[in-house]
Design a protein that fits this description.
Blueprint: E1 2-3, H1 6-17, E2 24-31, H2 38-48, E3 57-60, E4 70-73, H3 79-82, E5 83-87, H4 94-106, E6 116-124, E7 128-136, H5 137-140, H6 148-152, H7 175-201, H8 204-224, H9 228-234, H10 261-270
Parallel strand pairs: 5-6
Antiparallel strand pairs: 1-4, 2-7, 3-4, 6-7
């Protein structure tokens, strides 16, 4: 079991308060060459899933919401539920891929299962294919190594061997055990806060640095909040009010990458 941080629990609360809101995030990786078979993708992900144990865990809430939600092992974990397959209509360009991405992101992740999906997308123009990785923000925020791509893909053409064997799963906790855990945390939390405060007083420079970072972050947040809607209100104009709904739209663009720092230095040496 693993308890969610207050920030991660806040992402779930935000969804609970707005039925149109989805806190899922996603990325698209496009590849050249023929698409692999579904079973190949499933086997590749399944062989590395032990590296990201949270991908086999689902949410459990404490009865009466007396504590933060927890990640618990899903005893009925089914990899085929999370890995899905589809194909783009002709011509299979960026517009079609964008519409598919919008539809994928319009649907909330099912909280009865681990909060992630992976889509194998065929029939992209130019004989290409793609993978869409979709995961809930509460699973990945502030956690390194939880990106599925980082453990599935290899840096060389030779595939790495599977990671270990079957991962033993902990039994799903009962409601009574969750209540007991919440009661224990209620007692221990003040002691942890006191310990953290005393440790901080021993490092005043670190406290000052964190305070500065917090102030800077709040300032950036205030500037970012100056959205066109706020600008319109400030100028005395009526801001637009688009209807809220579950549908999403995706737009994007492309540009030539400048290359690595080493490549840029090499080009500067060649240029007169």
């Amino acid at each position: 079991m693993e308890q969610l941080s207050p920030l991660d629990a806040g992402f779930l609360d935000a969804e609970d308060q707005d039925r149109h809101l989805s806190m899922a995030i996603a990325s698209i990786a496009v590849f050249e060459g023929p698409a692999p078979a579904y079973d190949e993708v499933s086997s590749a992900i399944g062989a590395r899933l032990a590296l990201v144990p949270r991908y086999r865990r689902k949410l459990r809430t404490v009865p009466f919401r007396l504590g933060a939600p927890l990640w618990v092992d899903d005893p009925n974990f089914d990899l085929s539920f999370h890995i899905r397959e589809t194909a783009l209509p002709a011509p299979g360009g960026d517009a079609e891929l964008g519409r598919l991405m919008a539809r994928v992101m319009a649907n909330r992740l099912d909280r009865d299962h681990p909060l992630w999906e992976c889509w194998l997308v065929r029939s992209l123009e130019g004989g290409r294919w793609a993978l869409i990785s979709k995961v809930h923000h509460s699973m990945v925020d502030g956690i390194s190594g939880t990106d599925l791509y980082s453990v599935v893909f290899d840096l060389s053409p030779d595939s790495a061997p599977p990671v270990g064997g079957a991962v033993p799963l902990e039994p799903e906790p009962s409601a009574l055990s969750l209540l007991a855990l919440s009661a224990r945390d209620t007692v221990l939390l003040p002691l942890r806060d006191i310990r953290a405060t005393l440790a901080g007083l021993m490092q005043p420079a670190q406290i000052a640095r964190r305070a500065g970072l917090t102030a800077r972050g709040l300032r950036h947040y205030a500037v970012a909040r100056e959205h066109p809607r706020q600008q319109a209100l400030r100028d005395g104009r009526q801001p637009p009010r688009p209807p809220r709904g579950p549908c999403r739209a995706l737009s994007g663009g492309s540009r030539r990458a400048l290359g690595t720092e080493a490549q840029r230095r090499s080009r500067r040496r060649r240029d007169p």
